[in-house]
Amino acid sequence: MPNEFSGIALRPFAAPSSETVLADLAAEEPGQTLPHTTGDSITAMPLAVLSEYLGAAGRAGSSQSIGLSISSTLRDQDGWQEWPLAQKGLLATEPDDLLVFTEGDDLKPIWEEVKSHLSDWRQRANWSLDMRQVFGESWHLGQAEQLIEGIISGQARPQIELVPLASLQAKGAFAAAHNRLFLAEELLQPAKADELTAVLLEELGHFIDAQLNWVDSPGDEGAMFAALVQQQLSPEIWAALKAEDDTAGLTWQGQTFAVEQASLEDGVLTVGASGQVTVQYVYDGGSYSGQVALFSLTGMENLQPGSQAFIQEAARRALSGSQQGHVVISERDQGAVLSSQSEGEISSVGDTGSTRVFSMQASDRIAVMLVPNGTVEMVRQRPSAEGSLRPLFSVSAANPRGHVQMGQLSGSSTGGVYALEDLRFDQRSDGDYNDVIFRIEGATGRVESVSNLLEAPTWPGAVLELPVEVPSVPGTPGTPTSPGLPTQPGVNVLTSIVDSVEKFTPASSEAQIAASGAARITLGSRTVYIGTNQVSSINQNPIIASFDSANSLNNWVRTDYEMTGADGRGLGLAWSGNDLYGIFSVDGTQGTANQDFRRASASAEQAWLRSYGQGGGPKVAVLGRIDLATGQLLDAVYLSAVLSNGNSNSLSITGLAVNNSGNLVVSAQSFFAPRRPNGQAMTQVTPGSSPFAYTVELTPNLKRVVSTAAVGWT
Asked: What does the alpha-carbon distance between residue 427 and residue 191 come to, in Å, rounded to a whole number?
């Protein structure tokens, strides 16, 4: 067949309104001079000289990216050939007419790995359940199957563009309105292949959501999708991702895009509702003598992570000894609970100074800084210092070449155990992550697991077993091994709360419930779940289920907490060490008192705690004390905001703690006026809008409100 289709149509990608021209181009004579491409104009050229053209554009320093598209007709002709995307800025511009990756393309092995993950996941029996968990219920199964198969086969993918990390400020991003996927070009290195695979899977999750749903799914659906595909999702991370806002703005080459992004938030911790952060120095395994600090990220958004300005500001905040930051571990004058005496041997030091408590701003975003061999003050004075004085961060973007220097050993809904590598990976790091190990309670976040970071475990066994072996932090909760294990006052309790409606039925197996996003807590061999039972198309009731792998007598399911026509939902559980509490919502009052929470709230001292109150529709919170042995509702209180007309309004519980008096401290979001202990509206003294951060102190038996407080109200 004559080679009459030897050309390709190009356009400047900087003109998004212009359409790619797919033309049948006559063969050109070899060596023809190529016309210049500007604005919306289209230039045709033979493939034989495409490389020369691109090389010339690169030599000219052109920052304009070029979009390529090959028509299906051209693909079937002799003379059509592949062109690698190794050149920065080359994009496949149509999901169903992609430029095929060649062997020389740096992205091809990554795409092969992504396709392998997707193919393996697609073969799982519960793949469609995963889809429903991430993308909701409004999409069509056949459409989803076709889309996933299209991605695996290469027929359905978004456009791809490489962007410098300094401009992207994320590992990856997807602009649904433009069907464009952006990747940080710094990820295109062999050492970051696994990270790039995860980022591509995450952004494909955003792409899938945009194809299947008219409205963006709640939370970071891309990260949830990637984690489910790779089977790396814990209940705590799931709850965090469901609540995460992954939207952002990106300005690139003169355009502004609304994107969903794979953010640089890995390594960022969020302070709990109490604002109290406890740090325990667990293990000293390094030869350096340095310091560890926590610092607030609020207000540092415009500082480039890892820059001298970023480092100096982080040091300044850490030295302030305020809610902006603290030096939390100083190896020179502070002993760890455990230390390495000789290779393979761990000894218990039990230093009483290993645990310290610090005050941070509730709900603030904080990061960890390690000065490997020196002090934070030295860093403040010399932010440009290199070597062992150059600080390393929990946020990988702030580290040399973006390496991960902090990993997580274990975690719960209130904290975690973390390990720091004190040698830079771009120099001579041994990568053992056993130099500084510490526990944080009162702040949680997304941190890469140490098991994923270690190429080969070389630690002494006791260190690898740290989540079990480390002595409990005095006054902090753990995962109780049996009912009745006391939790000392003054700290957060073991809590799991979701802000979405997670459904299961009395007939659901534990595996089915565990696969959902239902809130849960684990007490030894027992796990208790709470969720919502869809009893009819227009009615929902709360449901709690207990499963014990060691004792079947502890297995039970209860659905009688609220059985009226009002919608009741189960949203969370909390274990104080002595009592199990259920966190519910309800949107009104129907039926009789013995059919809902009122049967357990009637003995509360203040009237507003006993019922929903005036009105109906807004979802108020209900806190119930549950008999762990049977699931029976023992005591309950209604917690609500109040409108100016006296009607009850929405209130949502976000956390529980136990204070030094042994009372429960409920953290909540109040929509409109928060209430005083007597139920009357508080007085607003600082301008602001709903929701308002609200705290309610209750007796453990839920009989009386001791005190209330709200930000901006008295």
From this structure: 14
